Give the backbone structure.
Amino acid sequence: MGSRHDETGLLRWDRGTLFLLRDEGGRWRLETGRRAETMVGRRVRIVGTRVGFDLLAVSKIEPC
């Protein structure tokens, strides 16, 4: 927990939660601001801190 992650993948909704489907496999649940909602369905780069088993608190999100 508390580790920093820099990931790329596809941003998706699932049951009201934003997820990053990682390019290398697996996925992260995301805590993000509203700006991220405009990028759903697109490939993105996310930088964040792990705050739970599969949860990242996102500090930066940008299209790839």
User: Anything to note?
Assistant: The CA atoms of residues 2 and 50 lie 5 Å apart. The mean pLDDT is 94. The radius of gyration is 10 Å. The longest strand covers residues 4-14.
